[in-house]
Specification:
The complex is a heterodimer of chains A (262) and B (267). By secondary structure, chain A is mainly alpha-helical. Chain A has one domain (2-256). Helix content of chain A is 73%, strand content 0%. The longest helix of chain A has 31 residues, at 99-129. Chain B is 69% helix and 0% strand. Chain B has helices spanning 2-19, 23-50, 59-79, 86-92, 96-100, 105-112, 120-132, 142-168, 170-173, 177-191, 200-209, 217-224, 240-260. In chain B, helix 3 runs antiparallel to helix 7. Chain B is globular and about 55 Å long. The chains are: A mainly alpha (262), B mainly alpha (267). Chains A and B meet through helix 2 and helix 9 of A and helix 2 and helix 10 of B.
Amino acid sequence: MRVYLEVARTSFRRQTAYRAATAAGAFTNTVFGFLLAYVLVAVYEERAVVGGFDVSDAATFIFVGQGLLMVVGLFGDNEMADRIRTGEVVSDLSRPVGYQGWWAATAYGRAGFHFVFRGIPPFLVGALAFDLRLPAASTWPWFLVSVAAAVAVGHAWNFLLSLWGFWLLDARGPIALGWLAAAFLSGMYVPLNFLPEALAGAVRLLPFASMLQLPVEIFLGQHTGPGRAGVLAVQLAWAAGLAGLGRLVLGRAVRRVVVHGG
Amino acid sequence: MAEVLRIYRRLLGARLRSEWQYRTSFALLLTTSFLVASLDFAVVAVLFGQVDALAGWSVVEVAVLVGVGGLGFGLADAFIGQVDYATTHIKAGTFDQFLLRPLGPLLQLSAAEFNFRRFGRLVQPLVVLVIALPRAGVEWSPGRLVLLPLSIASSAAIFGAVWVATSSLAFWTVDTQQFANAFTYGGNQLTRYPVDLLGGWLRRLATFVVPLAFAAYFPAAYLLGRTDTYGGPPALAWLAPVVGLAAAVLAGGTWRRAVRHYRSTGS
């Protein structure tokens, strides 16, 4: 266990090296927050409530969502896939540390960094222009656990997509396509509440809602009591399910690795 | 000039052959580009499932915005969006190679990082425009017929200029590509909706400083015969080519200054 903590810490520290990139990224998340929030506000010029959200809920959703993009890794991550393509995967597999756990630990280290430096600034700036909501004090622990679960689901998804590399060599295609679907269905482009009701209900059954929509709903206080525990249970179930699937596929994938000598 | 184009074409041919090596991935990436653009319109469709108008614009009117802006953005993305990779080459010190060859570094970069999958982005706005235009009640006149292709070209020029100008910053700051994304991809997001719905300061910024309002809003308003545009009369649409040209010249100057500032990694 300690070794994974150490891997996560190193991953966190690695992010601190890119200060200018982090500032630029937070700037971009903020700009997108404004652009998206203005569009939703225009929707509320016509209607007071959409799918249970009022205008403050919607604006808050956008800024919390922009803050969570990098935490959950909604654009996908090619690092593991690249190391499969270049053959560096051999050294990854020969480490005396679980392959899947090692990548999960790097994802958590990165998520921790992005939570602070990419998550908080867009919200603070957004609050200057829009009427944003803050959760009650008792909601914060639930939100943090929900985000941690979202990171696990996001990582498990990226891991599954990256494993394609063992068969295709270049897994960039599956990763791009897989994350495109995931991002849209997670509520990143538009809150799932804005979808037609039947469609929203179906999309909520998929694992992608667990990556963004559900944690943000918890932030907004849309779930309370046993319902909130239920949401968390759904997220954890998806995390365990996808990670378990990843483990199974990994077992078959490593048998395809051929080390060329010389 | 003909010589430059011949070299450019050969370089693109080489890129195509290299992309073709990983066929499955190439096909998936091409599909992804198409789908990315489609999702942009899917969001518009979702919103119009809830309301009939956004800032007074109907869904077909917004579709014209999406078409003009999307084609401009898609063309800029395909031919000049490669400046995104300037930062990668600066970081690795491999920008040297572009300075050693007898061809403009911007053209070389565009060829070296050319991605045919980016053409996938053009399909969706084209389809949207073809479907929307006959339904938008445009009163076609010679002026409007001329303006339509001209506004798409201007849109591409404006987006291209924004791309080059913001990416040039990388020569000073190395890894701030995300900053450029706020203006390029953010610009794509901004031009999809009437600027009326933006806060006043952002609207002024998009009209006078980073002239994205000329990349879709004014031309679309003129085509649609709307008279309620912010920031001036819709006839400002005729300024779009001038704005595009001026932006391109400014961006070119910025790029040349930036390249002169290049310091190799020394390793």
